[in-house]
Write a structure and sequence with these properties.
Elements lengths: L1 H20 L5 H20 L5 H24 L7 H27 L20 E7 L4 H12 L8 E7 L4 H4 L4 H21 L2 E3 L7 H11 L5 E4 L5 E2 L8 H6 L3 E5 L9 H6 L10 H13 L10 E4 H6 L10 H10 L4 E4 L5 E2 L6 H21 L10 H12 L3 H18 L8 H23 L7 H22 L19 E2 L4 H23 L4 H24 L1 E2 L9 E11 L2 E10 L3 E6 L10 E8 L5 E15 L2 E8 L6 H9 L3 H10 L5 H25 L9 H6 L16
């Protein structure tokens, strides 16, 4: 009965809304209504009102958006008789409607994000057996040593925990490769990782052939193990000791749960954060997904597997034949298959792994290209809208997650649209200046309010536009390739751990300069037309302003393609651990304040004599309860002060057997990392965010052009795999021939 009443109320509200949206009103009345709605929404936003006010905010904001969509559909398209204007006008209109439909789906997804309380706990006798899989392809042994050591140290009954290294870089196929150099490298890796696993008491698993990429590797792990639960950590995702205690309880409590997913936290900046120097103060790009969207998906039992930092139920995987491998995003595909079989998922918003992001722009775009192609493969080959067994909310959630990846096409449309009027006088947006203010500006204002209200603490203004633009240049072609042949994409491993000796341009930078030049030329030509064609001054100002916004984003992107040097091979993470420095037989209490797999920075807690560089010492590592674990050999590399306090820089003199001690210092307690994440998650006023972007516009383009002119040869050519994945948008390429490495 209650459900029926709610359905009737929603139907009546929808009919009333449609009636209001379709009412013909004058421009002045529309402006009054829209401004009133915006003021109401802004008051809710500024006062940080939540609870039922969230629904009020979304309702009045949606009214403005739908009024714009109705007006845009019925009053702005040119006549079909004028094909030169009509065809590009319809393309632009469809791009706008795509974003409005996507906005509606996203509002549904995050309308009431699920905030989970403390994780359920179970007695050790009730806990199921857990197999930890660490799939690897080309990661170095020191990266793997940290992840494997952290996995071995998980807080869980030792007789119910096994750790497996799944090595796809040392398969029989690779060890018997025709290329002697590749075969020798595969044999060297195979033997080195076998020795590493022997030292750490980890089970080494490889297979005959590299089929079905990561999904095939994980399925090989399933065949070699028998635990009730499977935990997957990427090779560079080292877990905290508490991981299983914060996740497995959900599996014990509900036998229909197939997945417990946790956020991915990264210890190093992505190329955009690094090159624009925002990592320490701005929310990372993935925090919008893990901080808001996954919690919204969780509300509708649609949180999906993200490839790592997750627990899965073996029985569920066996029901669908293991990890799915039809597409190159095996994680989301597997979750979709299992949701369609009636299984449940859980999302726990507690970062409990620290991983690595791609350091270079080419690697970053290559990674996003794989995600984009894989999600579109799912959309085309396993469309959630047609798959039986899913609820309607789950269908909307999965369709939203797939459709978002068409953004590069829409971004290119928005980039090109003002140029058609400026250069060719095509009237594809037929409105007066008054209508533009009453409908378009109010729609843009309320859209900005919606984004800031829902995502303001995890995504600052203008950052979505910048990230989308940077990716769109190369992902445009990736989308076309999937649409033409959904089965064609292949899995490419993301390169990580790269270093740069000096500042330089990215090897994939040239399209960004070309686009900037075109937009700058359009801005100059707009000024010329405004002076010589006063009769079109009003609409020209609108279009020129649109082009100016595109130019600002393109200018900021020139800072992104200017790669900053990165000589540190191992990123440091913040920590706060007590230890003892043993020097010449004497122990000195110290606090470890930041640490990496290569060394640590410590603060002596008392007086310490001056120590010569390269002095050998040892660091006594203990658990948080004071239980000593062992001595870590170190070298004192430097001694100085930081903020008035003495500090020592330590380097390790360690082999793989010492990595459990390093893992204990780095990851036993991730509270400092979670606090770092929380400090970054704060709202940024629109004017402050705009000032940031303008600072980048004034600061970076000249430096980028200086690199372009004086050291163009400094950039290394991209790898063949990068060339395959990183083709710029065809509409911006100088010829139809593939770009050569």
């Amino acid at each position: 009965m209650r459900t029926m009443v709610l359905a009737v109320l929603w139907l009546c509200a929808a009919m009333a809304g449609l009636f209001l949206i379709s009412q013909p009103v004058g421009v002045d009345a529309q402006l009054t209504v829209a401004v009133t709605a915006i003021l109401g929404a802004a008051a809710i936003y500024l006062l940080r009102l939540r609870g039922p006010w969230r629904a009020v905010f979304l309702a009045i904001s949606t009214l403005v958006v739908l009024r714009y969509a109705y007006w845009r559909t019925t009053s702005t398209l040119p006549s079909p008789d004028d094909l030169a204007n009509f065809i590009p006008a319809v393309v632009l209109y469809l791009a706008e409607m795509y974003y409005i439909v996507l906005l509606a789906m996203n509002l549904f997804v995050v309308s009431d994000p699920l905030e989970r309380g403390a994780a359920p706990q179970a007695d050790d006798e009730q806990l199921p057996r857990v197999d930890v899989f660490v799939p690897s392809y080309n990661e170095s042994a020191n990266i793997l040593a940290l992840t494997l050591s952290s996995a071995k140290a998980l807080d869980y009954p030792a007789d119910k925990l096994r750790v497996f290294l799944l090595d796809d870089g040392g398969t029989e196929e690779k060890r018997n490769a025709r290329d002697p150099a590749k075969a020798a490298e595969a044999w060297r890796r195979h033997e080195e990782l076998q020795a590493l696993c022997g030292q750490l008491d980890v089970t080494y698993v490889t297979r005959a052939r590299n089929v079905h990429a990561k999904a095939g590797n994980l399925n090989a792990g399933l065949a070699a193990s028998d635990g009730d639960l499977i935990v997957v950590f990427d090779a560079d995702h080292a877990p905290a000791r508490e991981f299983l205690r914060q996740t497995v309880g959900y599996m014990v409590r509900d036998p229909k749960v197939f997945l417990v997913q946790t956020p991915h936290f990264f210890s190093n900046p992505d190329p955009i954060e690094k090159n624009l120097s925002t990592f320490e103060r701005m929310p990372s790009e993935n925090e919008m997904f893990y901080g808001t969207i996954q919690k919204g998906l969780d509300k509708w039992n649609a949180a999906f597997f993200c490839g790592s930092a997750a627990v899965l139920r073996r029985a569920a995987l066996m029901q669908v034949g293991g990890f799915s491998g039809i597409t190159i995003t095996e994680d989301c595909e597997t979750a979709l298959d299992l949701h369609s079989k009636g299984w449940k998922s859980v999302y726990v918003d507690r970062p409990m792994v620290t991983g690595l992001q791609p350091e270079t722009l080419a690697s970053f775009i290559g990674q996003r290209s794989r995600w984009c192609r894989g999600m579109l493969q799912i959309l085309l080959m396993k469309n959630a809208g047609l798959m039986p067994g899913l609820s309607w909310p789950q269908r909307i959630c999965y369709l939203s997650s797939g459709l978002i990846w068409f953004f590069p096409i829409m971004r290119m449309v928005f980039l090109a649209a003002p140029l058609l009027f400026i250069f060719f006088d095509l009237k594809i947006y037929d409105v007066s200046t008054q209508e533009f203010v009453a409908y378009t500006l109010t729609y843009l204002a309320v859209s900005s309010l919606i984004r800031n209200y829902l995502y303001g603490s995890v995504r600052w203004p203008w950052m979505s536009e910048l990230y989308e633009y940077v990716q769109s240049v190369y992902l445009f072609r990736a989308i076309i390739s999937v649409l033409l042949n959904p089965r064609r994409p292949t899995f490419n491993v993301t390169a990580k751990g790269d270093t740069l000796a000096e500042d330089r341009l990215s090897e994939i930078a040239w399209p960004y300069f070309a686009i900037f030049a075109v937009l700058l030329g359009a801005a100059g030509y707009s000024v010329y037309r405004y002076q010589t064609e006063p009769e079109i001054g009003g609409i020209l100002l609108v279009v020129a302003g649109w082009n100016l916004l595109n130019l600002v984003i393109a200018a900021a992107a020139l800072g992104v393609v200017t790669e900053k040097r990165e000589r540190r091979t191992t990123p440091r993470i913040v920590t706060n651990r007590a230890a003892e420095l043993v020097l010449d037989g004497t122990s000195f209490p110290v606090a470890v304040t930041d640490i990496s797999t290569g060394g640590a920075k410590v603060q002596p807690m008392g007086a310490l004599r001056v120590v010569a560089p390269d002095t050998a010492a040892e660091l006594l590592v203990s658990r948080s309860d004071g239980t000593p674990l062992g001595l870590l050999p170190v070298t004192i590399r430097s001694q100085g002060e930081e903020k008035g306090l003495p500090v020592l820089g330590l380097g390790y003199r360690a082999d793989y057997a010492h990595y459990p001690l390093i893992a204990e210092l780095m990851l036993a307690d991730m509270t400092p990392l979670r606090e770092q994440r929380a400090r970054r998650q704060h709202r940024r006023a629109l004017w402050l965010a705009s000032a940031n972007v303008l600072t980048w516009v004034l600061r970076y383009p000249m430096g980028a052009f200086r690199h372009l002119v004086f050291d163009r040869t400094a950039a290394a050519p991209p790898s063949p795999q990068e060339v395959q994945a990183l083709q710029p948008a065809a509409i911006l390429r100088p010829s139809a021939q593939p770009v050569q490495p």
